[in-house]
Design goal:
The protein has about 180 residues and is mostly helical. It contains four helices and two strands. The longest helix is centred in the first third of the chain and has 38 residues.
Length: about 180
């Protein structure tokens, strides 16, 4: 019932493999891939920072006071920058009770509604993140921890990730409407 649709690099259209991609989908896909590369780099950076923090705390006896706060911000960035690529590749966790039996036009209709749902949720997240970033910048909100970082900076990753996720979902919907749903 639950699947991760793990189809590897060849899954350009993981939900509708026979659907050709538009130029828009390819461009948004490239942006999603670039964001996921940054996300992977942040994973490595976070791992190194946490390792260094553990070394400082338990070997040297001098903990880094800001590392926990920064790693929390980086986890948000990692997730949000990788979300659109996960959608592009079809490697998200999904409930496939309906789609596993559907083929042809029914499958493409389910794919359309699935992508439309993602677009709606990501649009709501984008608007919410935009309001949070604007508010944080306007009144100068800083984090409560040792970093005392302007909160609009980590909040901006919500904005970027939700925007990319929205663009990917809309591009896939458009591909389905203009190229896929007209098929038999």
């Amino acid at each position: 019932m639950f699947s991760d649709n793990n189809q590897g690099d060849g899954a350009q259209n993981a939900l509708s493999p026979d659907l050709p991609q538009s130029l828009v989908t390819k461009v948004v896909g490239w942006m999603a891939f670039a964001a996921s590369v940054v996300s992977a780099g942040l994973v490595i950076l976070t791992l190194a920072m946490i390792g260094f923090s553990v070394f400082r705390r338990y070997v040297l006896g001098h903990p880094l006071t800001w590392s926990d706060e920064l790693s929390g911000f980086l986890v948000v960035a990692i997730v949000m920058l990788g979300a659109a690529e996960v959608l592009r590749r079809g490697e998200h966790v999904s409930v496939d009770i309906l789609t596993e039996k559907a083929t042809g036009r029914k499958r493409r209709m389910l794919d359309f509604w699935s992508n439309l749902s993602v677009a709606i949720v990501s649009a709501v997240l984008f608007v919410s993140a935009l309001n949070a970033v604007q508010f944080s910048r306007k009144i100068g909100v800083y984090s409560d921890g040792y970093l005392e970082a302007p909160l609009w900076i980590p909040q901006a990753f919500l904005l970027i990730g939700a925007g990319l996720l929205f663009l990917m979902a809309v591009a896939r919907c458009l591909d389905l409407v203009f190229k896929g749903l007209r098929k038999s």
